[in-house]
Amino acid sequence: MLTAENTKKWMDSFYRKIEENKDYLSELDTPIGDGDHGNNMMRGMDGVKNSLAQLQDPDLKTVLKAIAMGLISKVGGASGPLYGTAFLEMAKKCSETQKVNELLSVALAGIKKRGGATEGDKTMVDVWSPVAQSNAITPKIIDDAIASTKDMQARKGRASYLGERSIGHLDPGAVSSGYLFTALLETEGTL
Amino acid sequence: MLTAENTKKWMDSFYRKIEENKDYLSELDTPIGDGDHGNNMMRGMDGVKNSLAQLQDPDLKTVLKAIAMGLISKVGGASGPLYGTAFLEMAKKCSETQKVNELLSVALAGIKKRGGATEGDKTMVDVWSPVAQSNAITPKIIDDAIASTKDMQARKGRASYLGERSIGHLDPGAVSSGYLFTALLETEGTL
Amino acid sequence: MKKIINEPQHVVSEMVDGLVRSYPQYLEKIPDTEAMVRSDKDSMTGKVGIVSGGGSGHEPSHAGFVGKGMLSAAVAGQVFTSPTPDQIYAAIKAADHGKGVFLVIKNYSGDVMNFDMAKDLAELDDIKVKSIIVDDDIAVENSLYTQGRRGVAGTVLMHKLVGAAADQGATLEEIEQLAQSALANIKTIAVALSAATVPEVGKPGFTLADDEIEYGVGIHSEPGYRREKIKTSKKLVTELLEKIEKNQPLKSDHQYAVLVNGMGATPLMEQYIFSHDLLDQLEDRQIKPVFMKVGNYMTSIEMAGVSLTIFDLVDNKWLEYLNYPVETIAW
Amino acid sequence: MKKIINEPQHVVSEMVDGLVRSYPQYLEKIPDTEAMVRSDKDSMTGKVGIVSGGGSGHEPSHAGFVGKGMLSAAVAGQVFTSPTPDQIYAAIKAADHGKGVFLVIKNYSGDVMNFDMAKDLAELDDIKVKSIIVDDDIAVENSLYTQGRRGVAGTVLMHKLVGAAADQGATLEEIEQLAQSALANIKTIAVALSAATVPEVGKPGFTLADDEIEYGVGIHSEPGYRREKIKTSKKLVTELLEKIEKNQPLKSDHQYAVLVNGMGATPLMEQYIFSHDLLDQLEDRQIKPVFMKVGNYMTSIEMAGVSLTIFDLVDNKWLEYLNYPVETIAW
Ligand SMILES: Nc1ncnc2c1ncn2[C@@H]1O[C@H](COP(=O)(O)OP(=O)(O)O)[C@@H](O)[C@H]1O
Ligand SMILES: Nc1ncnc2c1ncn2[C@@H]1O[C@H](COP(=O)(O)OP(=O)(O)O)[C@@H](O)[C@H]1O
Ligand SMILES: [Mg+2]
Ligand SMILES: [Mg+2]
Ligand SMILES: [Mg+2]
Ligand SMILES: [Mg+2]
Question: What value of ipTM does the predicted structure carry?
Answer without folding.
Answer: 0.93
